[in-house]
Amino acid sequence: MTALPPQPLSPLDGRYRAAVGALADHLSEAGLNRARVEVEVEWLIALTDHSLFGTTPIADTDKARLRSLYLDFGQVEIDWLAEKEAVTRHDVKAVEYLVRHRLAELGLDGIAELTHFACTSEDINSASYALTVRRAVEQVWMPALRGVIASLDALAARHRDAAMLSRTHGQPATPTTMGKELAVFARRLTRVADQIAGGEYLAKFSGATGTWSAHLAAEPDADWVALSRAFIEGLGLDFNGLTTQIESHDWQVELYDRARHAGGILHNLATDVWTYISLGYFSQIPVAGATGSSTMPHKINPIRFENAEANLEISGGLFATLSQTLVTSRLQRDLTDSTTQRNIGVAFGHSLLALDNLQRGLGEIALAQPVLDADLDANWEVLAEAIQTVVRAEITAGRSQITDPYAMLKDLTRGRRVGAAELAEFVDGLDIGDAAKQRLHALTPATYTGLASRLVDEA
């Protein structure tokens, strides 16, 4: 059997590329290297802007040409770095050589030794990962999450009054509305999304063991902490001034735990909507040309929600691994984080794919109100809660001599269907006030939804 032509090993780079490709602009190896070039270039510019070691600020035209190395980063630079890394066996060192190469092209060899000055690789990496992850989250992943939330908000508003039977423990229970149930998911997701949006993206820039030792040896009179802080904050990041060789990754742990939390809520949404579809509460809108089953032509399978479940489980496992691994570094530094962080894009990729499936799935369902109505009308026994609660209130008010109303309703309804006529006859025979009887007679399963509609409006 002959070997296949080169193929993507991951489905994210194969069949799902169109759905997740935007993440690769940030969380791929090339995206990381572009950010590394950005950090190296901006650090060199910062040093000369402070006229350290007798330098003068680089001319604006040369700054623009130097910055174009990362602003116009493309296949030429990708190939150059791959060739250089094959020799250096060190990715960050290859980036340093690329910057030096550009300086030589610009005739700025005199400041070449300020490239990667006093830096450990983790100074460059911590800033680069913070930049790429922040941009991926803010520009790609978070808009997709907010899009799903917006779809849920719209569906909740549309179905605010759509009464339906609840199923606590899978059994008929006090009615609610479909809008209120969807609003619950929207509120849960909004809360976690807001936590993620308020998170920090920390970077360090303090040398080999976080002490600025080399910096002070080269220039004892400079305020290196202030300069480093200004540099990192100038990149739009948060500064961590107390670290070992590496930035401690706690901000990443917080982010991935929250992303995993959001994924858990989304997984719950996917399983609930799948169940509503199986109950007939939602019908699926046929997509022209699509095949549901290879042998059963009538089927429309809820594949969007099933695919979302699977991808959320994969991303959740990866996010958990990232959090568990990145929280620990032996003594001042070990290398486990290096391999682990290369999978950040894979974790967000599967999460983004799930969001894409959910967004599409939510747009391909329609509420089947007649099914909801029929389900409610077949379960009048759910009003037992209302009846026994009203009786308790009447006893307390001195308008009833009934004892143990809960047991009385339990005997009437537990494990059996009770129809409207039977309940009406039962209410007529109760020892309660006329106003209470009138309220109970007016109740139906479809109207016994409490404040569900108002809760949607408030949400």
TrEMBL record:
The keyword Chloroplast does not apply. It holds the Pfam family Lyase_1. Keywords: Lyase, Purine biosynthesis. Pathway: Purine metabolism; AMP biosynthesis via de novo pathway; AMP from IMP: step 2/2; Purine metabolism; IMP biosynthesis via de novo pathway; 5-amino-1-(5-phospho-D-ribosyl)imidazole-4-carboxamide from 5-amino-1-(5-phospho-D-ribosyl)imidazole-4-carboxylate: step 2/2. Transmembrane segments: none annotated. Residues 15-308 form the Fumarate lyase N-terminal domain. Residues 329-449 form the Adenylosuccinate lyase PurB C-terminal domain. Coiled coil: none annotated. GO terms for molecular function: lyase activity. Catalyzes two reactions in de novo purine nucleotide biosynthesis. Catalyzes the breakdown of 5-aminoimidazole- (N-succinylocarboxamide) ribotide (SAICAR or 2-[5-amino-1-(5-phospho-beta-D-ribosyl)imidazole-4-carboxamido]succinate) to 5-aminoimidazole-4-carboxamide ribotide (AICAR or 5-amino-1-(5-phospho-beta-D-ribosyl)imidazole-4-carboxamide) and fumarate, and of adenylosuccinate (ADS or N(6)-(1,2-dicarboxyethyl)-AMP) to adenosine monophosphate (AMP) and fumarate. NCBIfam families: PRK09285.1 (NF006764). This is Adenylosuccinate lyase. The gene is purB.
